[in-house]
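Last lecture ended with a question: if I hand you only a sequence, what can you say about the shape of the protein? Today we answer it with a concrete record. The protein is Probable transcriptional regulatory protein Pan189_32830. Below, first the input exactly as provided, then the predicted structure, then a couple of comments.
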Amino acid sequence: MAGHSHWANIARAKSVVDKKRGKLFGKLSRAIIVAARTGGADPAMNLRLRYAIDKARKASMPKDNIERAVKKGAGETDGENYEELLYEGYGPGGTAILCDILTENRNRTASEVRKIFEIHGGNLGTTNCVAWMFDLKGVLRVPAENVEEDRLFEVALEAGAEDVRRDGEFFEVHTPPEIFQQVCDAFEEAKVPTDSAETTRVPQNTVDLDGDDARKLLKLLDGLEDQDDIQTVTANFNISDELMAEVGAE
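The predicted structure:
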C-alpha cells in the first residue's frame, strides 16, 4: 500500500510544471521570507531559515531569488506581510487533511480553500478537528539506489532516529523534531544523500481508500497543492500502488 508519503513523490514530480509557472518558487520564497522575519537572516542561527533555503536549493531555485527573499524577510527591502495559518478538513472516505498556509489575505485564502474542498467532495473544518491525529516529526527521504540499507540503519539509529522504513524507491527516516538537525548533520557527515529533509506532520493512523473515494481524494490533494497560498498538504490515507502510479502518470 502507498499513502501520504508516496503522494509527496507525485507532488514533487508535478512541481516541475509548477516551477515553469513560477508557482513553486513563489511558495519557496514565502517560506524563506517568513523564516527570516521570525528568526533572523543568518541560517547558522536560524534553523528554520536553513531548512527553507536547503529546500529551495534542492528545487534549483536561483541564488538571487533566495537572497532577495532573505532580504525581504529581514526587512532590508519591502515585502508582503504573510500570516501563518493551519487549515484542517475532511476528504472523501473520512480522510483527515492539513494545509499549512502562508497568506497576506486570510479571507481570500479561506474562501478559495473552502471551494477546493467542496468541489472535490470534502469539507473545510474547524481548528483542531483533525490536527490531533498527526504527530510532528523530522522526516528524511533517501534514494534507495544511493545507499546500502545496513549502512543507512547504522547511521540513522546511532544519530537517534526513531524509525527507518522502505517506501518504494526511497528509505524514509523518522526522527523526533528536537533532534532532527542532529540526524541531518550525521547524514551529512556520513555522506548519505537525501532527496528531502524537513519537519512535517505524520498521521498516527491511516484510512484505506480505493475506487471513487481514492480518485476524488487525489484530485482534492492536487487542487490544494496547486493553490498559491498552501505550502504543504498532509493527509492520512493509503491507496494501492497501482492506482497511485496511474494517477501519477496522468
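Comments.
1. Residues 97 and 235 are 4 Å apart (CA to CA).
2. The chain has a mean pLDDT of 85.
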